[in-house]
Amino acid sequence: MPISARNAGNVLVFGALGLTLAALAYPAMLGVENTTSSPDRVIANTRYGPLTEADRDFVVKVRAAGLWEYPLGEMAMERGTTVEMREAGKHLIVGHAGLDVMCRKIAPELGVVLPNVASPQQQQFVATADAAGGKEFDSTAVTIMRVTHGQIFPVIAKIRATTRNVMVRALADLANDTVLDHITVLENTGLVNIDQVNFQQSTPPKLPKDETTPPPPLQGAPMVALTPRPDLNIRTAAPAPTGPSGTSTSAG
After folding, report:
1. Neighbours of 160 (CB within 10 A)
2. Alpha-carbon dihedral sign for residues 73, 179, 61, 21
């Protein structure tokens, strides 16, 4: 069966991206494996339940994810060559703005310090997509995003299933909805080669921790906030869980 022009283009794009993704495609969004000691070690007892190393890492990395996926979503809205690509950009912006609101709400309650910039690896994700143009930009951005989202999806499920902290559980609920939504709109672009994506997801390279960890904020620096975009009219379904006192922890 002859290969279509789109598929042929995808083959070339994936070939060109092979080295880049081999170097970059690690679960950077929520890399709970990169904790300082045992992920199960309790580091704080809060009124919302115990907070573990993995819980803290999860909150930090959800925050960091928005710091690179939100601007990439803006690029997709502005530079995407198809309606589907621009739609994916809208979902990235709205989804991560919502997650960012929740992260900034719960972090002070849990004593978690949030980063103001993404990790070096995540910044390189954005730079790689930004260096491409036209349909190459579409393919490059979709490939990077679909690989990273696919890697982190099971990590979110593990946090959701194991955390004993009410607020972290609420964040995992919203992250699960958001990542599933993003996976869906990325696949709707028609640019996802699932075999190539599965290979990249299952063979991540080993990178130094300082490449995959967002730096701490500078002392006294104002908190960076991702701007909500209600004008885009994009929503992802998520529950509105409450804390032990009945107060809502939702991102709305």
Report:
1. 17
2. negative
What are the angstrom distances between the C-alpha of 143 and each of 19, 25, 174? Answer: 13, 10, 23
Rounded Cα distance, 235 and 131, in Å: 30
DSSP readout, 61-101? HHHHHHHHHHHHHHHHHHH-SSHHHHHHHHHHHHHHHHHHH
- Burial classification of residue 48, based on how many CB atoms lie within 10 Å of its CB (0-12 exposed, 13-18 middle, 19 or more buried): buried
Task: Tell me if residue 118 falls in helix, strand or coil.
Answer: coil
Mean pLDDT by 10 residues, the chain (252 residues): 43 41 34 54 94 96 96 98 97 96 96 96 97 97 96 93 97 96 96 94 88 93 94 70 52 43
How many angstroms separate the CA atoms of 212 and 24, rounded? 9
173-to-36, 152, 166 alpha-carbon distances in Å? 25, 14, 11
The neighbouring-strand residues paired with 248 are 242
Query: What global pTM score does this model have?
Result: 0.80
